[in-house]
Amino acid sequence: MKIGFIGLGNMGAPMAANLAKAGHAVTGYDPAGVTVEGVAPAETLEGAVRGQAAVITMLPNGAIVRAVHADIARLAEPGALLVDCSTVDVDSARAVHDIARQAGLLSLDGPVSGGTGGAAAGTLTFMVGGSADAFAKGHPLFEIMGQKAVLCGEAGAGQAAKICNNMILGISMIGVCEAFHLADRLGLDRQAMFDVASTSSGSCWSLNTYCPAPGVGPKSPADNGYRPGFAAELMLKDLTLSQEAAEAAGAETELGRHARDIYARFVEAGGRGRDFSAILEKLGQA
Asked: 26-77 pLDDT, tens per residue?
C-alpha cells in the first residue's frame, strides 16, 4: 500500500519505519525535517499526501490535528483512508471525522498505548473509532504497527477509550509509587514488596510490567535513570484531557482529578522530560 505518514517524532518515526519494513511504500513528512530509514522523505505535506491510499498522522494536539487534516482532506485521493493516531480531545477527533466525510474519505481515530518501546517493537495497542469499513481497511496496518487493535465504536470512540485507559494508568502509577515510598519508610525491602504485591491483590501493569523502583521487576525506565518511555508531561496531557471530558460529560472522577494535579506539580517541579514513573523518586525527596 502507498502510505503517507505525517509526524515523525518519537512515536511516529518507528511506526512509519515498521510499515516500511513490512514492504509498504511509505512517504513521510515532518515540519522539523526528520527522516526515517526506509521511509521516503517529502519536503511538503502535499508530497506525503498526493496519491496515497492511506495517510496516518501522529501530531501533538487537537488544534494541529484539525488544521493538518483540513489540508489533507483537500489533497487526498478520493476514497483514501485517514488515520489519526494522535491523542487529542474527543471533540477534535469527531471534527476530523466530519472533515474526512465531507471530502469523501474514510477515517479512523486510532490513538495508541505502549509508549516508544511499543512503537519500536510493533507491539502497540490501537483504540479505534470509526466505521467498520474504514476499520477493515486500516486493520492490516494496525497489525504491523501493533499487537492489538480494538474497534471501540463510531467517531471519537478511540479517543474516549484512550483517555479512560490512561486515567487508570496515571492513578495506578501514583498508587504504586506511594506504596513503594511507604515501604521504604517502613524499612521494607523493595524486592520483597514487589514479590508480594505483584502476585497479590496489588498486582497491576504499573507494578508488574513498568515497576517504578530501579532494579526491581522487568527492565523499565526506572533502570535507565527515568529516561522517558512515556514522559510525565504526556501523562499530564492525557489526564487533563480526561478531566476536560469528565467535566463536559458530568462524570465524577475525583481520583483522576487528583492524579492530574499531582502530575501538574511534578512537571512544574522538574519532572518535564522524565518518565511518568519518576514520581517515586520525587516522593523519596519529600
From this structure: 999 999 999 999 999 999 999 999 999 999 999 999 999 999 999 999 999 9
Supply φ then ψ for residue 126, to 5 degrees: -105, 130
- Interior angle at CA 184, CA 180 and CA 189, nearest 5: 90
Number of Cβ within a 10 Å radius of residue 252? 8
Contacts of 247 (CB under 8 A, 6+ apart): none
Name residue, grid cell 479505534.
128
| 146-153 and 124-130 beta bridge pairing | parallel
From the centroid of its chain, how far is CA 152?
16
Whole-model pTM: value is: 0.92
Categorize the per-residue pLDDT at 116 as very low, low, confident or very high, splitting at 50, 70 and 90: confident
Contacts of 169 (CB under 8 A, 6+ apart): 205, 206, 235
Residue 181: per-residue pLDDT: 97
Identify which of 61, 8, 2 has the alpha carbon closest to the alpha carbon of residue 31.
8
Catalytic residues, by residue number, are 162
Q: Three cell numbers at 144?
A: 504491523
CB 242 within 8 A of CB 164: yes
**Sequence-distant contacts of 190-197: CB under 8 A, at least 24 apart:** 190/215, 190/216, 191/216
